[in-house]
Design goal:
Layout lengths: L8 E5 L4 H12 L3 E6 L2 H11 L3 E5 L5 H15 L4 E4 L15 H26 L5 E6 L12 H21 L4 E8 L5 H6 L6 H11 L9 H12 L10 E4 L29
Parallel strand pairs: 1-2, 1-4, 2-3, 4-5, 5-6, 6-7
Helix pairs in contact: 1-8, 3-4, 4-5
C-alpha cells in the first residue's frame, strides 16, 4: 500500500541518521513532504538532496527552542502546513553508576530528550491547533517503561516522554490533534552498536540482538520503528492517542528466551496442598 501520507507534511528531528533518516525516506515514499532537522549538517543535507524536492534540511539543535521553532516554521513556509511532528532526536547520554554520574552530563541528556520533545510538541501545537488536525509522535524507549534497561538519565528522560505524550494527548484531543510515542527495545542501529563497542559493526549487533531477542532469532530492526512511526503518523491510527507503542518483541510484558511458566504442576492450594 502506497500513498499512506499523501498530501501530508512532516517535520522530523534527528533526521540525518538512524530512525530519523529511515522515517524521512519512508515518509517521502508514502507521499509526504518532509523537513529534516539535525546537527549533522553534511549527512542531513546529503539525504535531503537524495530525496529531492519533497525534502528540505535545516540545522536544528533540539536543546534550542528557537531552532525547533524555525524547523516548524520552515515546514509551514515551504510546504504550507504541518501535519506530523516526529520528535526523534536522541542520544545515549550519561552512562554509569548513579554515584558517579556527572551533573553536567545528566542535564545535557535530559535537555536533549525532554526539552527537545517539549519544544517539538509546543511548536507543533502552535501551528496544528488553528488547522484542527495533526499527529505528534515522540521517541521513548523500553527504558521509559521499566527500570534497569538503560542508563539513569536516559531512563528518566524516556519515562518523562511517556508522561508528556499522555499529557499533551489529553490537552490536544479537543483540537483534533493526536499524540503518541514509540518505545523500542535495543534495535540494530549505529547507536546501539556503539554501546557494544563499534558503531559501524551493524552485522555483529544484529547477531547479538538475535541471540537475546524474545522472538527466537529475530533481532529488532530500524524498519520496525519506522513502520511504527508511519502508522502513528498516518490516518490509519486516527482514533489512537496517548498510546505508548512498543517495538520490543514483548520484552516489557515478560517475554524472554525461555517460558516463564515452567512445566505443568498440579493446582497449588493453601499450605502447600496440591489438587483442586
Amino acid at each position: 500500500m502506497a500513498g499512506r501520507l499523501e498530501g501530508k507534511v512532516a517535520a522530523i528531528t534527528g533526521a540525518a541518521s538512524g530512525f530519523g533518516a529511515g522515517a524521512a525516506k519512508r515518509f517521502v515514499e508514502e507521499g509526504a513532504k518532509v523537513v529534516m532537522g539535525d546537527i549533522q549538517d553534511d549527512a542531513g543535507q546529503a539525504l535531503a538532496d537524495e530525496l529531492g524536492d519533497a525534502a528540505v534540511y535545516v540545522h536544528c539543535d533540539v536543546t534550542k527552542e528557537d531552532e525547533v521553532a524555525n524547523m516548524v516554521d520552515t515546514a509551514v513556509e515551504k510546504f504550507g502546513q504541518l501535519d506530523i511532528m516526529y520528535n526523534n532526536a536522541g542520544v545515549v547520554g550519561a552512562v554509569g553508576p548513579i554515584a558517579t554520574t556527572p551533573a553536567e552530563e545528566w542535564h545535557r541528556t535530559m535537555d536533549i530528550h525532554v526539552s527537545g520533545c517539549f519544544y517539538g510538541c509546543k511548536h507543533a501545537a502552535r501551528v496544528m491547533i488553528p488547522r484542527g488536525t495533526g499527529s505528534i509522535v515522540s521517541m521513548s524507549s523500553t527504558a521509559g517503561i521499566m527500570g534497569g534497561l538503560g542508563p539513569h538519565a536516559y531512563t528518566a528522560a524516556k519515562h518523562a516522554i511517556v508522561g508528556i505524550t499522555k499529557s499533551v494527548a489529553a490537552e490536544l484531543a479537543q483540537y483534533g490533534i493526536r499524540a503518541n510515542c514509540i518505545s523500542p527495545a535495543g534495535m540494530a542501529t549505529a547507536m546501539v552498536a556503539a554501546t557494544m563497542g563499534d558503531h559501524t559493526d551493524l552485522e555483529t549487533t544484529r547477531q547479538n540482538l538475535a541471540q537475546t531477542s524474545p522472538l527466537k532469532g529475530r533481532p529488532g530492526l530500524p524498519e520496525d520503528v519506522v513502520n511504527a512511526a508511519l502508522f502513528l503518523a498516518s490516518d490509519e491510527s486516527g482514533y489512537t492517542s496517548g498510546l505508548t507503542l512498543t517495538t520490543d518483541a514483548g520484552l516489557t510484558i515478560g517475554s524472554g528466551n525461555e517460558s516463564p511458566f515452567g512445566e505443568y504442576q498440579p493446582f497449588m492450594a493453601e499450605a502447600g496442598k496440591r489438587g483442586v
